Amino acid sequence: MSLIIIGTVAFDAIETPFGKTEKIVGGAATYASLAASYFYNKVKIVGVVGEDFHAGDIKSFNDHGIDTEGLQIKKGEKSFFWSGKYHNDMNSRDTLVTELNVLADFDPIIPDSYQDCEYLMLGNLTPQVQQTVISRLKKRPKLIVLDTMNFWMDIALDDLLGVIKNIDVLTINDAEARQLSGEYSLVKAAKKILKMGPKYLIIKKGEHGALLFHDDLIFSAPALPLAEVFDPTGAGDTFAGGFIGYLAQVGTINFASMKNAIIYGSALASFCVEKFGTEKIKDLTKAQISKRVEQFVNLSSFIIEK
Amino acid sequence: MSLIIIGTVAFDAIETPFGKTEKIVGGAATYASLAASYFYNKVKIVGVVGEDFHAGDIKSFNDHGIDTEGLQIKKGEKSFFWSGKYHNDMNSRDTLVTELNVLADFDPIIPDSYQDCEYLMLGNLTPQVQQTVISRLKKRPKLIVLDTMNFWMDIALDDLLGVIKNIDVLTINDAEARQLSGEYSLVKAAKKILKMGPKYLIIKKGEHGALLFHDDLIFSAPALPLAEVFDPTGAGDTFAGGFIGYLAQVGTINFASMKNAIIYGSALASFCVEKFGTEKIKDLTKAQISKRVEQFVNLSSFIIEK
């Protein structure tokens, strides 16, 4: 029984109005696995890095109980590198550098020890690689969550439609939901997307929270209003990792557990943006997480007398 | 004991992707007073119309128990007229015509019978007129709510800052909160605005719901995701009217009652957008309102086990 997270493990160089970093460890699988590790102790990564990746960086995954057997290290090659600069509103950014490096011909390897996978998080990657991972698992996981982005809708829509037929939960943002469905109303968009395969759709709205759709049910999760967003990099991946990690912990898949999973994922994401990169989510305590979740409860609760 | 609503009473001609109207009755005070009338039976309007306003239009206020003694009818003059066309996303619109007419030299008259005012809703108008209404009330109401917009921040900021010193609740949208405070973060914006006078700040975010700020407390209210927005005209005024009407009904002013008032206001606003103008909010039943509020409860509730 394990939770597999596939996605990029990379170097990022980030510039925000508050400062800039050297190359730091980033990537969707990095953020998601760290977040998931606070809820579940059988988190396993599938990814690829170059030999520029340090042993210490791998150790810091293992220190969180994250299994890195599925993280390939390519000799003589370099890790995926992304550099970006956020604008003053912190909601938009310019990509300065994208070097695919090892990611260009990434062929995901699923070690035998990973075949006990019950929960699968397919981080944002080419739909073809996401499909390959599903195909290489001998037993269909209990829950498959897929994250994607508008880029794949633009250049690989057929592949994307192919893989989302096979998943349980799709996470995209509001603009992407509109693009994928051709509907402006998110209610109509969700109806169409739920017919494409996923049983659950999560629409991420950044500072406006998230919506969960399932059959005719809708849940609106708040985002924690923050005085300072220091660095938004990885917030979506942290959300996804916290989400699936929480579900793996409780072991129940239904609308009620998904609602809570969204709150826990949002709580983890709210920590992520408080410091550069993974700095804040590397060292959280259970007490910090509980307290943050309590803030979400207070933020959105009201009592209507009947 | 009464609830006074001051604002425009006007003719609107509205065009949306779904159709267009002839001149229909609109204006902030129209929407707000209709919404408030579902909660409180002592709603009184202050406003001005021309002689083109029909007796039947006034009767339809009175049919809702709304007192129109403070609605001046100017002989030989025409009512305020606004015409607008919504874009396909229904979030933006072009103003086609604005004829101020009677509004140009509006001098609000407070009849003696209105001096029992406990709740005062200052709808979006020039800050000077809003201040005049406060000055003409012999006793300071228990609660003063003020709605305004970016236009007055642009051309009459000093007047606006003057009147918001004297109120309890300010309602503006997120862009206006940023403009008024000079802060991008809504948490920082709220801190600054709460120092300008109001004890409560409501930031309206349209399809993303609303935020309520008071001291260090924050409440995030969801918006009901809708398949179809037919006509957004008056939704903000309907929200404000439902909000203050609910508070007048319960008679308690605190953070908990404000949270519920926002939910009731949002519920009324969600009806408003379902048809042109006031068509939908003219004929609601208590059962319809309760059912809609129940949808808001279901939409945002989750249970975290400790």
Automatic annotation (TrEMBL), chains A, B:
It holds the Pfam family PfkB. The keyword Chaperone does not apply. Residues 19-279 form the Carbohydrate kinase PfkB domain. Keywords: Kinase, Transferase. PROSITE patterns: PFKB_KINASES_2. InterPro entries: Carboh/pur_kinase_PfkB_CS, PfkB_dom, Ribokinase-like. GO terms for cellular component: cytosol. GO terms for molecular function: kinase activity. The keyword Methyltransferase does not apply. PANTHER family: RIBOKINASE (PTHR10584:SF166), SUGAR KINASE (PTHR10584). This is Sugar or nucleoside kinase, ribokinase family. It comes from Daejeonella lutea.
